Amino acid sequence: MAEASSAMEADAKKRTPRLFIKEMVMSNFKSYAAEQRVGPFHKSFSAVVGPNGSGKSNVIDAMLFVFDKRAKQNLDSAGVSVHFQEIIELDDGMYEAVEGSDFVITRVVPFRDNSSKKNMTE
């Protein structure tokens, strides 16, 4: 019995937190008018499904936009926030959120003057 307990304690010590995306918030981004929330995402797998032209690829474009990759639009401004959290996987397939690990990366671009503002909040 003590051996099983020791093995479980060793497994628990090996578990390290990992980052996952909780949700995305988009404001006036491509086909997402005003503020739209996408999520919550699953800890291991998420799929964006819908008919042609519904904005599925814009979810990935929004992620790239936050990290300065692309997305030029004919709007006054656009913004995307990606919410992250650290989790620890549990044996039963569930997860435990690491307290205080939430943070958000936001990018807002007022297209009139071609400037960009990024913000990270914890």
TrEMBL record:
PANTHER family, per database record: STRUCTURAL MAINTENANCE OF CHROMOSOMES PROTEIN (PTHR18937:SF172), STRUCTURAL MAINTENANCE OF CHROMOSOMES SMC FAMILY MEMBER (PTHR18937)
GO biological process, one term: mitotic chromosome condensation
Record flagged with keyword Nucleus: yes
Location within or outside the cell: Nucleus
GO terms under cellular component: condensin complex; nucleus
Protein name: Structural maintenance of chromosomes protein 4
Alphabetical UniProt keywords: ATP-binding, Nucleotide-binding, Nucleus
Domain RecF/RecN/SMC N-terminal: 20-79
Lineage: Eukaryota, Viridiplantae, Streptophyta, Embryophyta, Tracheophyta
Domain of life: Eukaryota
One GO MF term: ATP binding
Gene3D superfamilies in alphabetical order: P-loop containing nucleotide triphosphate hydrolases
